[in-house]
Design goal:
Cathepsin D, subunit A, domain 1; mainly beta; globular; 7-stranded mixed beta sheet
């Protein structure tokens, strides 16, 4: 199974001068755009919408903070307004974090995963069925 990584630009909706551009792993098993708590200050003052428990793949359960609104641009897809989940993350051996793009943001942006081509594709229409 291949990894799909995409460029993501996040902007504080109420303070557009506060932006963050990152490469993020597309994770359809994750609901939210998930970022390390260490990056939260770079987006300025975000409203804390609540604390949630998250179950990780390892399968430990941890607390995380949902904040927003955040304007998000995933690759060449249309920008969206959504929430971001901030959680404690450990950097890898190179000191890098691995942010995630979850299925909620993908659906909002009109993006779908092409598993054969290992990239994101535009959804032709919104499903209202």
């Amino acid at each position: 199974m291949g990894r799909i990584v995409t460029q993501v630009r996040l902007t504080n909706f109420t303070d557009p001068a506060k932006t963050l551009a990152v490469s993020a792993l597309v994770d359809t098993g994750s609901a939210y755009i998930t970022l390390p708590t260490a990056w939260r200050e770079s987006l300025g003052e975000l409203e804390e919408l609540g604390e949630v428990e998250v179950e990780r793949a390892d399968p430990t359960v941890k607390k995380a903070c949902v904040c927003g609104p955040v304007r998000v641009r995933i690759g060449g897809f249309r920008p969206i307004l959504t929430e971001a989940l901030f959680r404690d993350m450990e950097p890898d051996d190179d000191g890098e974090y691995e942010p995630l793009v979850g299925y909620i943001a993908l659906e909002q942006a009109g993006a779908a995963v092409d598993m054969l081509g290992h990239h994101l594709v535009h959804v032709k229409r919104v499903d209202l069925k």
